[in-house]
Design goal:
With 223 residues, this protein is of the alpha/beta class. The chain folds into two domains: 147 residues, HAD superfamily/HAD-like (Rossmann fold, 3-Layer(aba) Sandwich), CATH 3.40.50; 69 residues, Orthogonal Bundle (DNA polymerase, domain 1). 44% of the residues lie in helices and 10% in strands. The protein has a six-stranded parallel β-sheet with strand order 3-2-1-4-5-6, sandwiched between helices. α3 packs across α4. It is globular and about 50 Å long. It starts with a strand and ends with a helix.
Length: 223
């Protein structure tokens, strides 16, 4: 194992609440009401894909041009960025800073494979950006999760074969993306939802460098 590739939301920090509030405000302006249950569908997918689902819910999917959709998504993101200005190291999820430093001490490369275009900004706010060796720009990808491209791109940017990488996710679409990239997958959350992962842990503070390495070794031996 030479690299670990992390999702952002739900793994390093939790900005889902901010995303929900920003989407909810935008949707309300269009006369569409969304709730927490609907918001679950928006996790792990791109900004435009999230917007498309919201417009479909309001039966407005054919009302806007692509340029208008881009503007709506940009406006939502500006609102979201105002909200996350207040983020700091206290917003790092339990155990994550420790495991990142553990991995770095073992000369394991770290990559960010997040659908969020605000990844670099958030990592700076959290004080973690210097730990990461590469960050994939989701705007440069042709397909979002569950397509494998984002994890493949992270491996490519690190100049590593996918078999030397482990991906860590909290969403089913993300796990599918890792698996489609032929990488070892570790998920954080509900085992029933994330059963496709090679290993599932209940919370981020259960992630350790030794556990990640063991999962990679076990999977390498069985494949």
């Amino acid at each position: 194992m030479k690299a670990v590739l992390f999702d952002l939301d739900g793994i390093i920090t939790d900005t889902a609440g901010y995303h929900f509030l920003a989407w909810k405000a935008m949707a309300k302006k269009l006369g569409i009401e969304i709730n927490n249950e609907f918001n679950e569908q928006l996790k792990g997918i791109s900004r435009i894909e999230s917007l498309e689902l919201i417009l479909k819910k309001g039966e407005l999917e054919n009302k806007f041009s692509m340029a208008e959709k881009e503007e709506l998504a940009t406006n939502k993101n500006e609102e979201y960025k105002k909200m996350i200005e207040q983020m700091s190291s206290v917003d790092i999820l339990p155990g994550i800073e420790l495991v990142l430093n553990e991995l770095k001490s073992k000369n394991i490369l770290l990559g960010l494979a997040s659908a969020s275009q605000n990844g670099p900004f958030i990592l700076k706010k959290l004080g973690l950006i210097d730990l990461f060796d590469t960050i994939v720009n989701p705007a440069e990808l042709s397909a979002g999760k569950p397509a494998p491209e984002i994890f493949q791109k992270a491996a490519e940017q690190l100049d590593l074969p996918v078999k030397e990488c482990v991906g860590i996710e909290d969403a089913a679409a993300g796990v599918e993306s890792i698996n489609n990239a032929s990488m070892v997958s570790i998920a954080v959350g509900d085992r029933a939802v994330l059963s496709a992962a090679d290993k599932v842990v209940a919370s981020t503070n259960q992630l350790t460098a030794d556990l990640i390495k063991k999962v990679w070794i076990d999977c390498s031996e069985t494949n």
